[in-house]
Amino acid sequence: WYKIFSLTKPVTSVAMLMLQEQGKLSLDDPLAKYLPEFEGLQVAVADGADGVPQTAAPRHPPTLRELMNQTAGFSYGVFTQSQVDALYLRADLFNPQQTLEELVGKLSRLPLLYEPGTVWNYSLSVDIQARVVEVVSGLPYDEFLARNIFQPLGMQDTGYYVSAAQAPRLAVSYKPGENGLEPQDNTRYLTKPTLIQGGSGLISSMDDYLRFARMLLNGGELDGVRILSAESVAEMARDQLPEGVAGPSWVQGNRFGLNVAVVEDSVKAGHLPVGTYWWWGIQGPWMWVDPANKRIVLGMLQNTDYRHSRKVHGTISHILFGGQ
Length: 324
Known about the structure:
Strand content: 5-15%
Structural class: alpha+beta
Distance between the termini: 33 Å
Shape: globular
Largest sheet: 5 strands, antiparallel
């Protein structure tokens, strides 16, 4: 088993799209329709005194689609530096002792970093999506995933923690140190966390996540079990960015779909085939789904040096696709 970190995000895409297919939400609805605490959300317009930005009403409130294409205006607090990001850190958003409801409640009281629909910015928006799923479905997020995705797909080894009996199968994470790689403690993954997130936190096996990826490659169906329509999978995997909005700056040649990157230029994207949709986790696990060539590539790293992970990804992409 592996901690898959942000590979949790594509799973959240599927949860959201399932609810849209059931008519319980629409991606083009404003976020506040489902989470009223976001009514009256403000956006930062200039730096202010005492580290508190000046704000104004956004030109339009963020929608669920903007949450999923990372243009809703939220931030992570740790990947960029601004007065808004400083407020994120001050709000203790990463406290593991809080619930998802409490985390999202804190976010609703903080200003947006950008006008919705204008800038791609990696953010906590996928955790907000998970809270939307809870409210709309009436189920805790982990229970929704178990009932509607993991159990139907036969993903028996996927969840937010492992039991003591399962602990020996949980891969150890390593951190580079002065004397080589240093093993990291797995203790916190042996009990159910208080904070269940949509953007990170899942533990899975290579076999389980391959079943998830195969379902996507097959247009929403695996072994006779349909999770999503082919149309919804295509929606997830197409460029969802508004005209004039650039894709992620740190992965050239890519646009962005619904919680996944989408390759637009193979050469700039390190040889990944055009139309491949993908994501990865901060310790290196990754998924590439290549619909045109009916291929899936998965890798499971557990190394806190994310720069090393990206080098590994690039090397493997060159080996597999560089000569094509």
